[in-house]
Amino acid sequence: MPQPQLKKLDFTIADVNDIYSGPVGVLWEMLMGEQIHVGGEQETRALAKNLPITKNTHILDICSALGGPARMLVQHYGCKVTGLDATQHMIDEALKRTTQTCLTNNISYKLGNALDIPFKSHTFDIVWGQDAWCYITDKDRLITEVYRVLKPHGLIAFTDWLQVGPMSEQEWSDLNSFMAFPYMETLNGCETILKKTGFTIQQKEDLSKDFTQHCHQYQTILRTKLKDQILKNYGEELFQAADQGLNLWVQAADQGKVGRGRIIAKKTL
Ligand SMILES: C[S@@+](CC[C@H](N)C(=O)[O-])C[C@H]1O[C@@H](n2cnc3c(N)ncnc32)[C@H](O)[C@@H]1O
Q: What is the DSSP letter of 186?
C-alpha cells in the first residue's frame, strides 16, 4: 500500500561523517560486526548468490564502510571490488584491514559521495549496496548515478532499511534521535525509481520479518554482552541514547512500520 510521504529530515553528509568517525560508528560494529548490515556474512552470501560473479567481475560497493563485504566477496569469488564511502575514517580503516588480509590487489577504496560517483560511465559490472542508502536524501539521483557507471546490462544489487507501514512525522523524527536517515523508501518506491531510470527488476524481496528478529537480537546484545563495555569506554549518555534509540526501532519493527528489503535489477541497455 502506498505510504503518505513523510517530510524528509534535514541530515547532511557532515552528519554521516560525524557518526562514522566517532563512537556511534564503533557501536554499530560492536553490534553487527565488521559487515555493518543486518544479517552479516549470511546476508552477503544471500545477496551474492543470485549474481553472476566471477574473477572477471568488477563490483562497486557504494557505502563500503569497513570493507567487510568487499573482502568476503573477493575471498569467495576472486573478483575485483572498488569501495566508495564518504567518510575518511571508514576509508582508512577499510584499507588497513584489507592490507592486513593481503587483498589490496583486488580491492581499492575511494573517498566520495554516492550522489556524484567519482568514476567514468560504463565502468562496473555490478553496483552493490547493503543497508546504507537510507542515509541518502536524493535516491533518484543515486540511482541515476548507478545507472551511469554500470556497463550495459550491468546489475544493481542492494538491501536497505525501508518504511513498510504508515507513521507520523513525530514517530519518524523520534526514530532518528539516534540515526541520521533523511527518509526511507518503501519497497515499491525503490522499484518505481529503478524502473523509471531504466532498470528491469529481477528480484524484489521483503525481509521485514527477519529485520524485526534482528532488531530484537541487537537489543539483547546491547543490554547484555555490550553494556559494561560501552559504559566503561563511552559513558552512560551514549549507552542510554543507543538503548532508547534501538528500543524505538524494535517497537516500530514490531508494529510493522519499519523493515528491510533486497532488490536486484538489470540495466536495460
Ligand atoms: C551502515 S554503513 C554501511 C555498511 C556497509 N555497506 C557494510 O555492509 O558493511 C553506512 C556507510 O555509508 C556511508 N555513507 C553514507 N552516506 C553516503 C554517501 N552519500 N556517499 C558515500 N558514502 C556514504 C557512511 O560513511 C558509512 O560508512
A: -
* Atom 25, ligand 1: residue with shortest CA distance: 87
Q: Of the candidates 159, 63, 182, which has an alpha carbon nearest to the alpha carbon of residue 111?
A: 63
The preferred substitution site among 135, 142, 145, 181 for testing ligand 1, maximizing ligand atoms within 8 Å of CB, is 135
What digits encode the pLDDT tens for the residues 168-214?
999 999 999 889 999 999 999 999 999 999 999 999 999 999 999 99
Q: Is the CB of 13 under 6 A from ligand 1?
A: yes
Choosing from 16, 60, 84, 249 the residue with most ligand 1 atoms within 8 A of its CB, the one to mutate for a pocket test is: 16
From the CA of 113, give the closest atom in ligand 1: 20
pLDDT tens digits, 109-129: 999 999 999 999 999 999 999
Question: Whose CA is closest to atom 4 on ligand 1?
Answer: 36
- What the block records as the C-alpha cell of 80 is 575485483
**Percentage with pLDDT > 70 across the chain:** 99
Residue 170 confidence (pLDDT): 96
Q: Please tell me the distance from the alpha carbon of residue 25 to that of residue 85, in angstroms, as a whole number.
A: 14
Q: Are 53 and 79 in contact (CB under 8 A)?
A: yes
Separation of 86 CA from ligand 1 center, angstroms?
Answer: 7
Say whether pLDDT at 2 is over 60: no
Those residues whose C-beta lies under 8 Å from the C-beta of residue 40, and which sit 6 or more positions away, are 32, 33
Ligand 1 pocket, 36 CB below 6 A?
yes
pLDDT in tens, 236-253: 999 999 999 999 999 999
| DSSP bridge pairs for 82 | 60, 108
Range of the domain at 72: 13-21+45-208+262-267
If one counts the domains in the chain, the total is 1
Which CATH number covers residue 105?
3.40.50.150
**For residue 219, is it within any domain?**
no
